[in-house]
Write a structure and sequence with these properties.
Layout lengths: L7 E2 L1 E2 L7 E5 L2 E7 L8 E5 L2 E6 L2 H4 L3 E2 L10 H10 L25
Parallel strand pairs: 1-7
Antiparallel strand pairs: 2-3, 3-4, 4-5, 5-6
Length: 110
């Protein structure tokens, strides 16, 4: 399955780092907002595992709908489940054991 062509209706999480999540085929898909432009704009995680980075959603993942204004945010229980599964993965690179800690980067704020 090509995740970039899959139609996904994202929902807001209320988190400044893991701002978007969607349940797809029983698994949580989560977009981490990275410290752009120092890092790719987003990193996609599926069921807590990194899938890859996405720079430009409009051209790379046009089927993804990030306009969450007309969708309900996650419930408290859903939000807790999503954020618990992403614990420790806030800084860019943490998913591969190399969290960004450069002086020029704001990843430490995450």
């Amino acid at each position: 399955m090509d995740v970039l062509t899959r139609r996904v209706a994202w929902r807001g999480t209320g988190s400044p780092v893991f701002a978007y999540a969607a349940q797809v085929d029983g698994a949580w898909w989560v977009l981490r907002q990275n410290g752009f432009p120092d890092h790719p704009r987003y990193t996609l995680f599926v069921a807590g595992a990194v899938v890859g980075d996405v720079e430009d959603l409009s051209t790379r993942a046009p089927a993804w709908d990030l306009d969450v204004t007309d969708r309900p945010a996650l419930t408290g229980a859903q939000r807790a489940e999503v954020l618990t599964s992403m614990r420790g993965l806030g800084p860019y690179g943490s998913e591969v054991g190399q969290p960004c800690d450069g002086d020029w980067c704001r990843c430490a704020d995450r």
